[in-house]
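Lecture notes, unit on protein representations.

Consider one protein chain, 529 amino acids long.
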Amino acid sequence: MKRFSQLIKTLDSTNKTNAKVAALGDYFKTAEDPDKVWAIALLSHRRPKRPVNTTLLREWAAEAAGIPLWLFEESYHIVGDLAETIALVMREGESKITRSLQNIIEELIELRELEEPQKKAYVTARWKEMDFYERFVFNKIITGGFRIGVSQKLMTRALAQATGMDEDILAYKLMGNWDPSEISFESLVLKEDKADLQSKPYPFYLAYALDSEPEELGDIQDWFFEHKWDGIRAQVIIRNGELFVWSRGEELVTDKYPEFEVLTRHIPDGTVIDGEILPYADGVIGTFHELQTRIGRKNITKKLLERTPVILKAYDLIEWQGKDIRDQAFSRRRDLLHQLMKDHAGETGILHLSELMSFKTWEEAAGEREISRDKFSEGLMLKRKDSPYLVGRKKGDWWKWKVDPLTIDAVLTYAMRGHGRRTNLYTDYTFGLWDDGELVTFAKAYSGLTDAEFRQVDNFVKKNTIDRFGPVRQVTPELVFEIAFEGIARSSRHKSGIAVRFPRMLRWRKDKKIEEANTLDDLKDLLPE
């Protein structure tokens, strides 16, 4: 536990990638194997289920620190992170912890079955024998993930340096539904067992946003184009007669899409298709908002299947006849995918081929991009014809060329403190639009301003608060901001009746008075017909 806490402290104290890789690599070379497995799990968001709810943790922490609960809550609102707040309010003591990371986690797993007094005794005893960072890490294991800038890619790079194994192979091995309490470091990282790989997806290849004029990419004949569909990126795997559906977030979601089971009767074993899960009611691609009605549902009812049917819009073929074909050219993989659709999947109704387009000029491509929203897409994907299917986000061969965002001018109505380095500033905002002389809330946003602008707005919030609701402050409606968003849909869950996708602040409209802000009707005019 001491060693893992020191690792987290080192990772949290630097923004330099090489320093983080070096710290992780040193840990993977020196830690005990069971601790290595749990470190990988924790840093890839595979923490054990929470054994204690946060309400009890706050009460116990206030009592252990000898402060009233209201003072702890005020501290929590300022710090913005529960694990850090608990670590801070305790008296700094000398570290006496002797347990390993594995020991601590096994005890926390067993803690779930105990009564509240036993839970309290265990947790407070651990707090007393830990120093600040050990306590912070212990709390984080209980409450949530570590926000320390460690991606899966960075971790696999460190493992590659520590073990001498290929980075891409490690990325593949770490994907899937493995259980850190049941697998050894040898089995997870070092040993190759083909039986364990049956359900595993491949690491997804991700595109960068186009950051220059498309003409700078060279000859347009070197590129294929397809629409960037707004759904859930997924890999559909068929091996040994079984179906596995994985989301890009490495979540096994097979049970959420029972319609896909028909594919096992049409598509041969040893096939992995990369694509996008899209809502498809009445033969028309729907919005991401419609798809959200199925995301997170524990039970997929017949009524839900009828109301929001889905398809897989197939982009790529990355395994065929049991062979990994990611190193083949994109044009070749697409030829095989087209043949697969023709020979095996044409009658399923579930699998749709994402249309590949070619253009003679960049102007023609720009014209297709401009009509993307009419086709319920976010823009265009540009893929070099000879590109292999790589791991993670790489520049050069795949680009996303999204349409310009939709925008509207709205009034700041509420504010909350931010997180991380912004915990002392009000940076999370709620915005409203005019409707019959009243401001109706329609979106929240917390990005898009400069640090200097955030400080100015924070100062305004503190001086112009007219009411408080816990950590939320209602402010005098005076400031207007241009809000950008990617998509829009009707929603019965929102007071405005509208849901917008990825809202953020485009700019502070200091030139506008609140009377000049847009109306709810203006927002509704942006809805697709």
